[in-house]
Design brief:
The chain has 28 helices and 24 strands. With 759 residues, the chain is α/β, with parallel strands linked by helices. It has two domains: 381 residues, TIM Barrel (Alpha-Beta Barrel); 340 residues, TIM Barrel. The protein has an eight-stranded parallel sheet with strand order 1-14-13-12-11-10-8-2. Helix 23 packs parallel to helix 24. The protein binds glutamine (GLN) and zinc ion. Zinc ion binds next to loops.
């Protein structure tokens, strides 16, 4: 059996791309140095795949920031405001990704959106009535030739026209259908170019097919590909889907003239039954059987059984990953701390290449049971793995309805809190973290390595907290934070303090652009060992008379930003984590912390892509898990939560049912549209829609923030509005942070002034 890879991590085995790009942003290296690093990385990625004897190696899966942005540039979808900056192509590209503020103008970045059900974020391209889609780039050709020069024959990967047009934001009157003719011409031109190069295969990624689709969508998809796929051509077209099954379009897709179709058998609940029910014709099936999202080793016996079922329907099957390997870390080789007994359970991107070649071999051997590769794998899954904590299981089993309900009702609590806190209208605050300087990171690293004592480390962090409180006081913020200097990451920190987690050293996964996260691994049952944040919060509160918010990460986010177990239901893991965080909440309250924020930054992340799965598979346990965390606090203790994406318009009743007192969320890049929706749904929770974008170094002006606030006030009402940036500040520099927050506080004061003057 042949093997294929949908896409490979591009950030580098030790995040080389991140570091080079950030140096380039700071003007420390030239454009050509950045390009040289990128070229070296691409070559290394191809060579790894070649060494593992992968038959279909991906090219053009590299990106300097994001593949949707690349596709927009490839297809000439560059909004006029970026063209008007008159920058070099690479600078223009980064201006779209990060915003631009300089001699040539002042423009915000494109909105950033979550890539389906992953923690990867793409930039949302725009089309307006003047836009003209056409092929203007040649990155896929360059990539193909670059690999060819190394004697590696690759399949270029390009986001398909349907997914591109589905994810675009339409700014004018024209809609998806209006751009179909232009898209057809552009993709025909792509195929024409590839034919000229005598490329064997091209991969068009169409993950949009795994969402809920209606008849119009299917007609659009069909219209696009009927025209794009020529009758006679040399290059073969692989239609690649991932992140689920294509139940709405399976019949339509298999009737089209694709040479290969890639289906996901890991997340695609119905992939197998669709195949069995409707057959698969003469095409090549690229079977996504190696999980591209999780890090556990593949169970060969299970996979081989599936492959046998597939071969009953499909004549030609290629073994593939379930999605791009972008979503798993690069390689286990850098994990020196992980015990061998743990390590043997895992496969990162590089190890997954080996799994593909193992499986390809095992699918064809005669004496499977005798094969050592098979025996080893069988042995791993047959032997017991120590994970169990009976007390935790008992506590979860003993939960009753009352544990999920906070009393009294929100409105009653709100009144008591207003009296108790005496905050001004439009209280200002931040989301929690303050800039993490090189000094802080180096101190944390030294502490981890045992180079400085716990006492020294504690004194250092306390000094940072005290400085941070002083800065916030100087700026004039109303509710302060301790700054989160003790945390490398909002999830890893808790992972390290809770029992049941394993953590890695270099297992980074790209989240957006140069930002990577290092998700911990949930290995066993989760429990709290000791207070995790209480001493820091208490220290911070002791520095000021103002209120200091305690800062925790919620159970759903901890779960969604970890690599979950595959031997326990997600619901069970979420409740275990919720019980642990609940203990921390109650300890913070007992220690005198009166506002506690429980971040659910990633709540939306694992919302199933299909509406019919939302409640059953997810919301029915995720929302109660959050309530379990805070149902035990007093009415006068104010619970905040924070979500990174404002795209929760469709689950507003569920967000309200989290029953927090205040929620902050991202709104600045998405033009405040969410706020109207909140109003129309009679949202009860008080809100802090982010008034400026922290994913960009741009400093917003006082006027700009005041205007946003006035718009927000109009929709939200003065008693329910908080003023804050749209996320934590840890990735920002100190000067820009102080400047932006100062503007924010000035804007809040100006608007308050007007409110007071109003009758
Ligand atoms: N409290 C966290 C911080 O400020 C929240 C981060 C997030 O939402 N991603 O860093
Ligand atoms: Zn956030």
């Amino acid at each position: 059996m042949k093997t294929a890879v949908i896409g490979y991590p591009r950030i580098g085995t030790l995040r080389e791309l991140k570091f080079a790009t950030e140096q380039y942003f700071k003007g420390q290296i030239s454009e050509s140095a950045l390009l040289a690093t990128a070229e070296k990385l691409r070559q290394a990625h191809w060579l790894s795949q070649q060494q593992a004897k992968i038959d279909f190696i991906a090219s053009n899966d590299f990106s300097f920031y994001d593949q949707m942005l690349d596709t927009a540039v490839l297809l000439n979808a560059i909004p006029a405001r970026y063209r008007q900056l008159r920058l070099s192509p690479l600078e223009q590209y980064f201006a779209m990704a990060r915003g631009y503020q300089g001699e040539n103008g002042d423009v915000k970045a494109l909105p950033m959106k979550k890539w389906f059900n992953t923690n990867y974020h793409y930039l949302e391209p725009e089309l307006d009535d003047e836009s003209e889609l056409k092929l203007v780039g040649d990155t896929f050709i360059q990539a193909y030739l670059e690999a060819k020069a190394l004697n590696i024959d690759t399949k270029p990967v390009i986001i398909g026209p349907f997914t591109f047009l589905k994810l675009v934001r339409y700014r004018g009157k024209k809609r998806l259908g209006d751009f179909i003719p232009q898209a057809i011409t552009a993709y025909q031109a792509i195929l024409h170019q590839l034919n000229k190069l005598a490329t064997q295969w091209v991969q068009f990624d169409e993950p949009a097919l795994v969402m809920d689709l209606d008849q119009t969508d299917i007609a659009d998809f069909t219209a696009l590909y009927q025209a794009i796929l020529p009758k006679k051509q040399q290059v073969k077209v692989l239609l690649q889907t991932y992140f689920g099954d294509i139940r709405d379009s399976y019949v339509a897709v298999t009737q089209l003239d694709f040479d290969g179709i890639g289906l996901d058998f890991v997340e695609g609940e119905q992939s197998l039954s669709l195949l069995q029910k409707h057959g698969f014709s003469e095409k090549v099936l690229f079977a996504g059987v190696v999980n591209g999202k999780n890090i556990w080793k593949n169970n060969y016996a299970k996979t081989l059984k599936l492959l046998a079922q597939l071969s009953a329907v499909s004549k030609q099957t290629v073994l593939s990953t379930s999605c791009s390997l972008l979503h798993v870390p690069y390689s286990l080789v850098h994990e020196t701390q992980l015990a061998a007994e743990h390590k043997r359970y895992f496969a990162f991107a590089q190890e997954k290449l080996t799994e593909l070649s193992d499986l390809s071999h095992l699918a064809e051997v005669d004496e499977l049971q005798q094969d050592p590769l098979y025996q080893d794998n069988q042995h791993l899954f047959a032997s017991a793995r120590y994970t169990h904590n009976a007390a935790v299981h008992d506590r979860v089993a003993g939960l009753t309805e009352a544990d999920f309900k906070r009393t009294p009702a929100l409105a009653v609590r709100a009144e008591q809190q207003v009296t108790a806190f005496a905050l001004p209208l439009l209280p200002t605050t931040t989301i929690g973290s303050f800039p993490q300087t090189a000094e802080i990171r180096s101190y944390r690293a030294q502490f981890k390595k045992g180079e400085i004592s716990a006492k020294q480390y504690q004194r250092f962090i306390q000094q940072k907290i005290a400085d941070c409180i002083a800065v916030q006081t100087q700026i004039g913020l109303d509710v302060l934070v301790h700054g989160e200097f003790e945390r490398n990451d909002m999830v890893e920190f808790f992972g390290e303090h809770l029992a049941g987690f394993l953590f890695t050293e270099k297992a980074w996964v790209q989240s957006y652009g140069t930002r990577c996260v290092k998700p911990p691994i949930i290995w066993g049952d989760v429990a709290r060992r000791a207070p995790m944040t209480v001493p820091w919060s208490v220290y911070a509160q002791a520095q000021t008379d103002k209120l200091v918010k305690g800062m925790l990460t919620g159970p759903v986010t901890i779960l969604n930003w970890s690599f979950p177990r595959e031997d326990l239901a997600l619901r069970e893991s979420a409740l275990q984590i919720a019980l642990a965080i609940r203990e921390e909440v109650l300890d913070l309250e007992a220690a005198g912390i009166r506002i506690i924020q429980v971040d659910e930054a990633a709540l939306k992340e694992k919302l199933p892509l299909r509406r019919q799965d939302w409640h059953r598979h997810y919301l029915d346990w995720a929302i109660p898990a959050f309530r379990l965390v805070h149902s035990g606090v007093k009415p006068q203790t104010q619970i905040h939560t924070h979500m990174c994406y404002s795209e929760f318009a469709e689950i507003i009743p569920e967000i309200d049912a989290m029953d927090a007192d205040v929620i902050s969320f991202e709104a600045s890049r998405s033009n405040l549209s969410i706020i109207q929706v909140l109003k129309s749904h009679h949202f009860q929770t008080a809100v802090g829609p982010g008034v400026y974008d922290i994913h960009s170094p741009r400093i917003p002006s006082v006027e700009e923030i005041s205007q946003s606030l006035e718009q927000m006030l109009f929709e939200v009402g003065k008693h329910k509005l908080w003023v804050n940036p749209d996320c934590g500040l840890k990735t920002r520099g100190e000067p820009e942070t102080v400047a932006s927050l100062t503007h924010m506080v000035a804007a809040a004061k100006a608007v308050r002034q007007k409110l007071i003057k109003l009758p």
